Structures are given as C-alpha cells and as structure tokens.
TrEMBL record:
It holds the Pfam family Abhydrolase_11. This is KANL3/Tex30 alpha/beta hydrolase-like domain-containing protein. Residues 15-213 form the KANL3/Tex30 alpha/beta hydrolase-like domain. Signal peptide: none annotated. It comes from Herbiconiux ginsengi. It comes from the Bacteria. InterPro entries: AB_hydrolase_fold, KANL3/Tex30_Abhydrolase, NSL3/Tex30.
Length: 218
C-alpha cells in the first residue's frame, strides 16, 4: 500500500507519525501550525492521510469510516516511515499519534507496535473519549490496559471529553494528560474568561509533546 508522507522538522529530531482528524486534511491550518511548532522544538513529524481523506482531493466526498477499518492504513504509514529512516541509516523506534480521530486510531495500534519494537510512544491531540453529547458511548476500554508511554493533550472543556469526564475514567498509569485550561477540541479557550489564548495553548501543547518525546518513559 503506497503511502504519501508529508515531512516537517529537522532530520535529526525525534520522529512522530501524525494522522489527521476525521474532518480535516493532513495539511489543514491546525495541523500545519502544530507541526511548525513541533519543528521549532526539534521534533520531526511525518503526516499521512487515510484513503477517504485523500479521495476528497479528487472530488470524491467520503465520510470518515469506523476507526477499526483504517488500522491497516496506519500500519502501512508506520512501515513507510521506517523505510525512509532505514534508507537514511537512521531507523529507530518512532512515536505515533494524531489529532482526534487520528489519535484514536493510533491508540488502537499502539500496544501492538510497541510490543513489536517499532513504536516508542503515543501522542493524542484532543482524544475523542466519547461522541459530543453522548458521554455513555465511551471509547476508553483499550486505554485501561496500555503499557506504551502515552501523552494526551486535552482541553478542559473539550466536548469529546472534559476534564470532569476524563478524571472519572479508568485509564492506564502509562497515560499522562496535559490539560489546557478552558480549551475546546482545537485547544481554543475563551480568552476573556480564561485569560489564555489559542496561540498560548498550542505552544503549551507543543512544549509538552516535545519534552515527552525526548523522554517518554520518565
């Protein structure tokens, strides 16, 4: 399965394979900005698109499929990244993750790839713990057993999982959460209420991801 990769950041930095959210492409404004922030912090990202999103570029409008139906596409992306690294003589474990839907897919594969030695960590940017307005439809069962070091960056008022919601879940001790005060799913806060800005929260999340990837087990 051919995979088109979009690389950002210095070649010598830790590598993060990053998948997009359900409704936005790998080069959306949000994804571009966040990868730029990671690059400024020495992190190299490899972005890719699931087939349904790539098809939209040719005019074929497809909805996001169930997360379990694109696992092989994510596996192929990780394999492609390792091929590139091996060709440059720098093959090593990489971190995987994504924005929302992409992070959920990565989380479903993380343990498998961690055990195989090809992945060292997991990063989720706005994890969709449940659909908005449906807190009973949890997507957390596999998160209770994760052993791979995991960082979730989450706004405290994210409709896919607020701080109040998430603190009640049984999550693995391997998961750490970087909370972004008053942030929603894109980490954007209400500036007049919280005193924070969107740019500030994006930078805080990028700082947390960069520090985590340099020492995921600490």
């Amino acid at each position: 399965m051919a995979v088109e990769l979009l690389w950002t950041g210095p070649k010598g930095g830790p590598v993060l394979v990053l998948a997009h959210g359900a409704g936005a492409a790998m080069d959306s404004v949000w994804m571009n900005r966040f990868c730029e922030l990671l690059a400024e912090r020495g992190i190299r990202t490899a972005r890719f698109e699931f087939a349904y999103m790539a098809a939209r570029r040719t005019g074929t409008r497809k909805p996001a499929p169930r997360a379990d139906l694109v696992l092989d596409e994510y596996r192929a992306a990780v394999a492609a990244v390792h091929e590139v690294l091996a060709a440059s003589g720098a093959d090593r474990p990489v971190a995987i993750g994504g924005k929302s839907f992409g992070g959920r897919v990565a989380s479903m594969l993380a343990e498998e790839l961690f055990e195989a030695g090809s992945v060292s960590a997991l990063v989720c940017l706005g994890y969709p713990f449940h659909p908005p307005g449906k807190p009973d439809r949890l997507r957390t069962e596999h998160l209770a057993e994760l052993r791979v070091p995991t960082l979730i960056c989450q706004g405290t008022r994210d409709p896919f999982g607020t701080r109040e919601d998430v603190t009640s879940y049984a999550l693995s001790p391997a998961i750490r959460i970087q909370w972004l005060d008053d942030g929603e799913h894109e980490f954007k806060p209400r500036a007049k209420i919280s005193g924070h800005t969107h740019a500030e929260h994006l930078a805080t999340a990028a700082d947390a991801v960069a520090a985590f990837l340099r020492a995921p087990s600490s």
